[in-house]
Design goal:
27 helices; binds magnesium ion; 6-stranded parallel beta sheet; hydrolase; disordered C terminus; spliceosome; hydrolase activity; binds adenosine-5'-diphosphate; ATP binding; 21 strands; RNA helicase; disordered N terminus
């Protein structure tokens, strides 16, 4: 049981039946009543008994059955919080925040008091917090400080089926905690039925299934592959709204851009419809949800629409299992999602659009059958579903860069990463490649141990190159400046460019540009904002996102705290901004590019073309120099460099000697190069011990 029932031809959706269910829900029950209505409530006592009797329990239940919001509360009611915190991990930040908010409301306490959450750079917990929601990344970092997680009496590893990289590493670490601490409980929850794998990883742990309460979902496929699924989704939603019985709509697209485009198109068509028809058209409440959406707007998707208004939620795969919106009767599935995948050509992880797996598609469809029989419109053909989709998603650990994981595990004294207890070990090439990248950054020495720099880098919740860049600020005497730049790079872009005021906003941005560097531009913006007493009207006038800047300030103060605990003095380089560019260069020399044509560069190592983005300071200034380094490449219509800075060629030879040489007779430089080359040979031999090296390493 618990499986979605896909009845193609059930005679469901009888108008009356549906209206009944909808209004039943709309007559807002009290929160306590809502809690008792959840499927998990009916098995509460048995489940608590199973948990009492077993140290590790795998809990399987349909999405929306109450695992995330109820389990922690039950554990609290049963007394598990008397001598420790009940922690619950989420792969997504949005879910951690939103669920903590919901639970604090159900428990009638202020968020951050009994119930709190922690995500990277944001800790909303207090001394009273006994139920703590957090991202799996946050808990993973906590294991660095407290190997046995002594603060916690129970950890609920939620959404384990998502198989995020941090969850996968936590599996291995928590298995050891379970063995060492008899008083510790581990609960692993999954929305899918392949829980056997989790169970056997923990030595045949007890599996508990929450009986499902789902309704049949009728699946409709497109007859032909659709060329533009955003447009197809908008059309389908309008058709449902005009011709079908009440019930809310949920559309799955891949990201912010598509979601905004769909929202815009839908509201336009609703306006047209209203002006073209004499009869009153019932309202459509259009609600986007994606991870970068401000929290107050995110909360809106859960609110009940007024009578006679239909809700249309347009979401990324965040609504697949992490968040449950009640009252959905229609799902429109584009069949695609963005996934982070290591792109060997770019030499880094890139978010790219991929077809979803069959398991994910079925999860999406299931969203329509929670409150009554529903319909799912798949915007792809049945043939594509059967033949082109993978049965289940590839775990993140097998497809992304492992730099952070390697650093973390090394600092946990896992000597040989190939020995770590992974549920599904990452490909060896992946580990070796990540080790190699850490080595060129100077975080690992020639035999693969953490260097002093590496040990310091572990302290920062940043990707290795960013951490290195920050710490180079210490060496080069410009930490003050780097601190700001790293913080600005850790928040979403602060630039704001409304379609109808594009020129005006471009002009305002140009005032703040530093011609030779986007990094220095970010610094300039932050410094100017600081000089304006962090004022919001200044941001508005310059088309900058105040919330983004505030977030950067928050990140900055947290990084500053870490630097203080490490007793690293903060120095400023004053007007000598070249040192800042040097620090950027020292951490991003793998991303060095050479000028090829007008505003066109190519990566020095891989030859991948990369273009200046129109929003770049270098683009606007027209300044052309032979070499730049960039923060990352984003793939849209072309490969665009995101955040680029002009560098001197001899910096590349100095700071990234394993890649670059100068046709120069400078002996000291040559001597240094020779040493580096020798070191590289040693490292290569060392890695050879594991296996043949990745192709990348052999290329100079
Ligand atoms: P599961 O984890 O099993 O998928 P949840 O505990 O997340 O289930 O959800 C249980 C119920 O709580 C759902 O009906 C969902 O709609 C509701 N819920 C969860 N979060 C919120 C929220 N932020 N606002 C309103 N309702 C919510
Ligand atoms: Mg959940």
């Amino acid at each position: 049981h618990g499986e979605i029932d896909f009845k193609e031809d059930a005679q469901f959706a009888r108008h009356l039946e549906k209206e009944e269910v909808v209004s039943d829900f709309a007559k807002s029950k009290t929160l306590a009543q809502q809690r008792q209505y959840l499927p998990i409530f009916s098995v509460r006592d048995v489940l608590m008994q199973v948990i009492r009797e077993n140290q590790v329990v795998v809990v399987v239940g349909e999405t929306g059955s109450g695992k995330t919001t109820q389990l922690t509360q039950y554990l609290h009611e049963e007394g598990y919080t008397r001598n420790g915190v009940v922690g619950c991990t989420q792969p997504r930040r949005v879910a951690a925040m939103s669920v903590a908010k919901r639970v604090s409301k159900e428990m009638e306490t202020k968020l951050g008091d009994t119930v709190g959450y922690a995500i990277r750079f944001e800790d909303v917990t207090g001394p009273n917090t006994v139920i703590k929601y957090m991202t799996d990344g946050v808990l993973l970092r906590e294991t660095l400080k407290d190997r046995d997680l002594d603060r916690y009496s129970v950890i609920v590893m939620d959404e384990a089926h998502e198989r995020s990289i941090s969850t996968d590493v936590l599996f291995g670490i928590l298995k050891k905690v379970v063995a060492r601490r008899r008083d510790f409980k581990l609960i692993v929850t999954s929305a899918t039925l392949n829980a056997e794998k989790f169970s056997s990883f923990f030595g045949s742990a007890q599996v508990f299934t929450i009986p499902g309460r789902t309704f049949p979902v009728q699946i409709t496929y497109s007859k032909t592959p659709s060329e533009d699924y955003v447009e197809a989704a908008v059309k389908q939603a309008m058709k449902i709204h005009i011709t079908s019985a009440p019930g809310d709509i949920l559309i799955f697209l891949t990201g912010q851009d598509e979601i905004e485009a769909a929202c815009y198109a839908l509201s336009e068509r609703m306006e047209q419809l209203a002006s073209n028809t004499k009869q009153a058209v019932s309202q459509l409440l259009i609600l986007p949800i994606y991870s970068q959406l401000p929290a107050d707007l995110q909360a809106k998707i859960f609110q009940k629409a007024e009578d006679g208004v239909r809700k249309c939620v347009i979401a990324t795969n965040i609504a697949e299992t992490s968040l449950t919106v009640d009252g959905i009767f229609y799902v429109i599935d584009s069949g695609y999602a963005k996934m982070k995948v290591y792109n060997s050509r770019m030499g880094m992880d890139a978010l790219q659009v991929f077809p979803v797996s069959r398991a994910a598609a079925n999860q999406r469809a299931g969203r329509a059958g929670r409150t009554g029989p529903g319909t799912c419109y798949r915007l792809y053909t049945e043939c594509a579903f059967e033949n082109e989709l993978l049965p289940s998603p590839v775990p993140e650990i097998q497809r992304t860069n492992l730099g952070n994981v390697v650093l973390l595990l090394k600092s946990l004294k896992v000597e040989n990463l190939l020995d770590f207890d992974f549920m599904d070990p990452p490909p060896q090439e992946n580990i070796l490649n990540s080790m190699y990248q850490l080595w060129i950054l100077g975080a690992l020495d020639n035999v693969g141990n953490l260097t002093d720099l590496g040990w310091k880098m572990v302290e920062f919740p940043l990707d290795p190159p960013l951490a290195k860049m920050l710490l180079m600020g210490e060496l080069l005497g410009c930490l003050e400046e780097l601190l700001t730049i790293v913080s600005m790079l850790s928040v979403p872009s602060v630039f704001f460019r409304p379609k109808d005021r594009a020129e005006e906003s471009d002009a305002a941005r140009e005032e703040l540009l530093v011609p030779e560097s986007d990094h220095l531009t970010l610094l300039n913006i932050y410094q100017t904002w600081t000089a304006r007493q962090f004022r919001g009207d200044w941001c508005n006038n310059h088309f900058l996102n105040l919330k983004g800047l505030l977030k950067a300030r928050e990140v900055r103060s947290q990084l500053l705290d870490i630097l203080k605990t490490l007793k690293i003095p903060i120095m400023s380089c004053g007007c000598n901004k070249d040192t800042v560019r040097k620090a950027v260069c020292s951490a991003y020399f793998q991303n060095a590019a050479r000028l090829k044509g007008i505003r066109e560069y190519e990566n020095c190592r891989s030859g991948m073309p990369c273009h200046l983005h129109p929003s770049s300071a270098l683009y606007a200034s027209g300044l052309t120099r032979e070499y730049v380094v960039y923060h990352e490449v984003i793939l849209t219509t072309k490969e665009y460099m995101q955040c680029a800075t002009i560098v001197e060629p001899h910096w590349l030879a100095d700071l990234g000697p394993m890649f670059f040489s100068m046709k120069d007779t400078d002996t000291s430089l040559l001597a240094r190069k020779k040493i580096c080359k020798e070191e590289k040979t040693v490292m290569e031999e060392e890695m050879e011990n594991f296996r043949k090296l990745p192709e990348e390493v052999e290329r100079k």
